[in-house]
Amino acid sequence: MTYITKPKLHHPSLVKNKAGYTRRDYEGAVSTLCAGCGHDSISAAIIQACYELDILPHQVAKLSGIGCSSKAPTYFVGASHGFNTVHGRMPSVMTGANLANRDLIYMGVSGDGDSASIGLGQFAHIMRRGVNMTYIVMNNGVYGLTKGQFSATADKGSISKKGVANSDESIDLVSLAILMGATFVGRSFSGDKHQLVPLIKAAMSHKGAAFLDVISPCVAFNNHAGSTKSYDYVREHNEALNRIDFIEGREEITTQAAPAQARRRVRSRRQDRRHEARSGGPGGRRGRYRSSLRRSDPEGPAPPPQHGRGAAQHAQHARPLPRPGGARQDQRQPALTSLCWERAQQ
Ligand SMILES: Cc1ncc(C[n+]2csc(CCOP(=O)(O)OP(=O)(O)O)c2C)c(N)n1
Ligand code: SF4
Ligand SMILES: [Mg+2]
Q1: Which residue stretches of 187-307 are H helix?
Q2: Separation of first and last alpha carbons in the chain
Q3: Residue 240: what pLDDT?
Q4: Which protein residue's CA is at the shortest distance from atom 8 of ligand 2?
Q5: Are 216 and 138 in contact (CB under 8 A)?
């Protein structure tokens, strides 16, 4: 059984977004994935991101390949377009769909087997072509659907459920996406929705090829001691480089008010913020989003701050891209997550 519809009843108090939809309107069918599967958390993050971006569901086109991860689009934004392609061939269909209709919001969902094994060539070419889309790999290091064989993203030295060590080097899709020309690339963890939701929102708002590698534990076949994609391992080694927030582009605020009035208004907003900080209201949790990276200036990134806290944060962002592969049991590396990179559009 792969499809169970949900009752359409909504609680009347559910808040509608600017498009007139509640969060529940962005849900899909009831998930039939294993309870605790990371893929379901990523679906929930996509639902939240679409709700917060006020997206019209019928403007979304979801495409996927084959695998548990590729089943996930059934479980979010039910009122959208969808296409479940052949294993590893989602990028070709995505490219064709983009050529036919450039007005839709394209969301590609794939697995590490789907994109890094059978579909690696397709993955490389869709990044090279700069297709306008958000491409998410739900990365669990195994072929979950076919009972847990190592995929090409499994770290060297990680141990299978049956106790066999992986002897092959892994493929790092983040590095590959950058190499092939993707203009927005990030890595996150299905268990960190505070980081993941803004990342998905930023990727969906990006014009061009946006790629997110999301580590997503498979509770059935790759969640044991010895795995480098288990919840315990990722929580222990996850080094979130920054807490991202996403700020949508807004219209410039103009006012006809006399200068004295305008100053009064600014003062009152500051007072509001001070009040929120004291009361723990919105924005009141100090430092919560301080380390976020916001880089969407079409003129290119702003120059790094030279002094103070900002300078330290810039240095943190400027760290070289992580390569999680190649870790042995005794030499494991942290699974670094965060928005790593966005190229200014030409
Ligand atoms: C052409 C072809 N070869 C092999 C398979 C068998 N197969 C189905 S899903 C899958 C791998 C899925 O792994 P992944 O993309 O990582 O998804 P997950 O289930 O882990 O989310 C394979 C090899 C297939 N369906 N079609
Ligand atoms: S087999 Fe693994 S990837 Fe597939 S649904 Fe179960 S936990 Fe998720
Ligand atoms: Mg997989």
Answers
A1: 193-205, 231-237, 259-279
A2: 47
A3: 78
A4: 37
A5: yes
The proportion of the chain whose per-residue pLDDT surpasses 70, expressed as a percent, equals: 73
Query: Do residues 192 and 240 touch, judged by C-beta distance below 8 A?
Result: yes
User: Contact 161/214 with Cβ under 8 angstroms?
Assistant: no
234 in ligand 2 pocket by Cβ < 6 Å? no
Atom of ligand 1 nearest to the CA of 114: 15
By most ligand atoms within 8 Å of CB, the mutation choice from 1, 2, 40, 68 for ligand 2 is 68
| Atom 7 of ligand 1, nearest CA residue | 146
- pLDDT tens-digit profile of 103-142? 999 999 999 999 999 999 999 999 999 999 999 999 999 9
Using CA atoms, how far residue 255 sits from 80, 163, 237, 261, in Å, is: 39, 67, 49, 10
Ligand 2 pocket member 161 (CB < 6 A): no
CATH number of 23-237: 3.40.50.970
Nearest in space to 158 (alpha carbons), one of 330, 38, 36, 322: 330
Please state, in angstroms and as integers, the Cα–Cα distance from residue 263 to each residue in 253, 273, 276, 277, following that order. 14, 16, 20, 21
Give me ligand 2 centre to Cα 154, in Å. Answer: 15
- Nearest residue CA, atom 6 of ligand 2? 34
Enumerate the β-bridge partners of residue 151.
none
Query: Where are any strands of DSSP class E within 216-256?
Result: 239-240
CATH 3.40.50.970 residue ranges of the chain are 23-237
Atom number of ligand 1 nearest to Cα 112: 16
All residues at 6 or more sequence positions from 55 whose CB lies less than 8 Å from its CB, including other chains: 19, 26, 77, 105, 204
State if residue 85 touches ligand 1 by the CB under 6 angstroms criterion. no
Question: Distance, CA 285 to ligand 1 centroid (Å)?
Answer: 43
